[in-house]
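User: Some background: our group keeps a shared notebook of sequences we're curious about, and every so often someone picks one and asks for a predicted structure to add to the entry. Today it's my turn. The entry only has the sequence so far, pasted here. Could you supply the structure so I can complete it?
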Amino acid sequence: MKKLYVISGVTGMTGNELVRQILVDGSEDRIVGFDNFYASSIETVSDRIGDERFEFFEYDLNSKDQMEKIETLVVAKRNLYDELIYINCAAVVHTEHFYHVYETFKTNVEGMNSFLEQAIRVGAQKYINCSTSEVYSMNSWNEEGGVKESDFITMANAEHSQRTSYATGKLLTEFFLKDAVNTGKIKGCSIRFANVYSRDERYPKHIIPFIINSFKDNSKVVLLENSRRNRRTFLNNYDSCSAVLALPKSGYALPALFNQGITASE
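Assistant: Of course. Here's the predicted structure to add to the notebook entry:
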């Protein structure tokens, strides 16, 4: 079965690893991917940029004109493939932006919903929404070993931390997708990642290189608020992307929500 993947944020940490896992030798699948290099560069997919199965565009998820071009391209190609799958990886994710509502809202919320609406218009079979364990605030890991998809969310409010604005936006995207699924417009799943790290991380602000560099330079690590009592899990990027690609294979059993690297899914 040949698949056409349309991936936003394709040069980011999740997107570029998806490219490598999809375009394995012998695969007939194809990728239409785009990124505006907000926190990445073309270097992350340089090993695949010459692959005829990969069409890359330096486009912005928030540009109406550019997204119309993506839609036109997908419509022209969709009948050549057995399945059309949209994967939304684009997001403003650096920690300092979590504290500024408008810096994350446009891309993470409005952009995601526009991309979902496009997927529905072009007749995509499935939509995978990359969400986050941040929706659990400081409770993504507990004495019982973690949280389940069925657990209630106890989210910090604005008086506790403006950081929660990022998580609130991501939670809203889950509602957008669930509504589309419940009304029969598309099959889809929101996947909540734990803290993802990669051997190819380029930015010292990410938690793994931050810890390593802090120890090297200062022999200590200064963490953000609540870090002494906040317990989180970490997930290798290869594993998180493998989970993303496994979800569409579940067919009619595609779950509405899936926790990855937080606890075993129910």
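Suggested note for the entry: Helices lie at 13-22, 64-77, 101-121, 164-182, 207-218, 237-246. The chain is about 30% helix and 15% strand.
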